[in-house]
Design goal:
Length: 513
């Protein structure tokens, strides 16, 4: 993509730019001035959406996954995202690396260490069986096929819109044009775009608020300093400033290079834990067993609603995760669609499952089962540590400290998370900046001033949430609330793609005749 700067003031969509700006500023003020009251309201809203409309999120999740398999296996799978006969711009490895790192890679690394503990301390696990049987199953379920299904269905829809139909409005509403028609340019389209921007802000706020404290804790451990909220906020600022500079200077070529570095660091870390952590046999055997259990019970896990509310497990976890990935669908699929030019729809979906889901599963199997192996064999008691002080970040550092050359491993984890954040934030900032323009021609990019504004806007809300010391539950609430209306839009985009792709195939047949 050429770095052609756009600076025409008349093309800026001031409504989409200023309304989110005003709302985020207002929310930040509330969290700074009234932290306790704000958290209480968030908790109530989360209960309303997650408890009352939980089935809504579950049905959309399973439906989108099944739709992805249908699209890949149907006539739509043959469509090339670009010109006929066009070859992919990136190798499979570079493409997969960018795809994996543009989304929730930093969160995947964070939760790979710790998520089994969260389930092991949940009442639902006792209902299901033992820690050994189920604590390693749910992480694989919550981070694999359904979440990546959201990404990949929308990625091919956006890729088709950008590379085949060559539309110059890089917005959620434009992907709905085949169904909405002229209403895309009216209030219906404006509302969709505003919802998309709010979802984008919510996803970013949750991601940075949840995982960034781990980086601060590692820094505190390495340099023997006390970790404070100020340190965490400074880390966010430093990361985002570095990312912004990097993206301006290097563009997609730089993102590709950084993504490759991320993957090398990531798989290097996994190899060290697997080969030298002392739990190799347990990791492999438990990982394979958990994967089999997840696949065998996939439909049941996807549709479990806990109607009697004996543990509220799906409301606490499954519904939250589907909502979390739904709000991230505003940014990551646009980026995946952009870098998938030259690939077929089938290659994009199946390749995404192979690289994206494969890398995710390997991460959870190795990092999660390493610490769980130490727990069940009595070599460590991470569950007791977590129950004692509720410090998830300190617990992860304790897990890392059991590895050989622990300080080096901590540095690798820290650098990997920073690199993951870099590629993720670049795709987010670029997507958000595109929303500030009524249209962008092929090769055009948003003005640097607009990108800077969005960079600052995207980090403001997570800093406010950290300042208010929001709990994990309240951080999750932000995504659950924002995902509720976005679910309808995702279905609209999927339907629009099927309609437009069918029309395109019919046009191709007419041209051949």
């Amino acid at each position: 993509m050429n770095k052609k700067k756009t600076n025409t003031k008349g093309t800026i969509d001031w409504m989409i730019t200023l309304v989110p700006l005003g709302i985020v500023i207002a929310l930040c003020i509330l969290f700074f001035l009234l932290p306790e009251q704000s958290n209480a309201i968030l908790s109530q809203i989360r209960f309303f959406f997650g408890d009352t409309f939980g089935t809504y999120y579950l049905v959309i999740g399973l439906g989108i996954f099944l739709l992805s398999l249908y699209i890949a296996g149907s006539k739509y799978g043959d469509i090339v995202l670009g010109e006929k006969g066009e070859k992919p711009k990136y190798s499979f490895f570079s493409w997969g690396a960018m795809m994996f790192t543009c989304g929730l890679a930093a969160d995947i690394l964070f939760y790979s260490f710790s998520e089994w503990v969260l389930y092991a301390t949940d009442p639902h696990l006792e209902e299901m069986g033992s820690i050994q049987e189920w604590a390693g199953v749910y992480p694989l379920f919550h981070w694999s096929f359904i979440p990546w299904g959201f990404y990949l269905v929308l990625a091919v829809a956006f890729g088709f819109m950008l590379h085949v139909r060559k539309r110059n409005r890089q917005k959620y509403s434009e992907a709905c044009r085949p169904i909405l028609g002229k209403y895309t340019d009216g209030w219906a389209g404006r509302i969709i775009d505003l919802l998309a921007v709010f979802a984008l802000l919510a996803g970013t706020a949750t991601t940075f608020s949840v995982a960034t404290p781990l980086m601060a804790t590692i820094i505190g451990e390495l340099f023997h300093i006390t970790v404070s909220r100020t340190v965490i906020n400074v880390i966010i600022l430093l990361i985002t400033c570095a990312v912004y500079t990097y993206s301006l200077l290097h563009g997609f070529k730089g993102i590709s290079r950084l993504a490759n570095i991320c993957i090398y660091l990531f798989f290097g870390l996994l190899a060290v834990v697997l080969l030298f952590g002392g739990e190799t046999r347990y990791i492999i055997e438990t990982g394979l067993t958990s994967l089999g259990t997840m696949i065998q019970n996939f439909i049941g896990l996807s549709t479990y609603t806990d109607p009697l509310r004996t543990s509220n497990f799906p409301q606490t976890w499954t519904i939250y995760y589907w909502a979390y990935w739904m709000v991230w669908c505003v940014a990551a699929p646009f980026f995946i669609g952009s870098i998938s030019r030259g690939r077929t729809v089938r290659q994009t979906i199946l390749g995404g499952y192979v690289f994206g889901v494969g890398s995710t599963l390997v991460s959870f199997i190795i990092l999660g089962n390493y610490s769980m192996g130490m727990q069940v064999t009595g070599k460590a008691d991470f569950i007791a540590q977590y129950l004692k002080d509720g410090d998830l970040y300190g617990m992860i550092v304790s897990m890392i400290k059991t590895l050989p050359c622990a300080p080096v491993i901590m540095v690798v984890v820290l650098l990997t998370m920073i690199a993951f954040y870099a590629t993720s934030f670049d795709s987010i900032a670029l997507t958000a900046s595109c929303y500030s323009y009524r249209k962008l021609e092929e090769g055009e990019q948003p003005h640097r001033g607009i990108q800077l504004m969005w960079c600052l806007l995207l980090i403001a809300l997570p800093i406010a949430l950290l300042f208010a010391e929001s709990s994990m539950s309240n951080l999750q609430s932000v995504s659950i609330v924002a995902a509720f209306p976005i679910g309808v839009v995702i279905l609209l985009i999927a339907g629009s793609f099927l309609k437009d792709a069918k029309k395109y195939i019919n046009e191709e047949k007419k041209d051949l005749n």
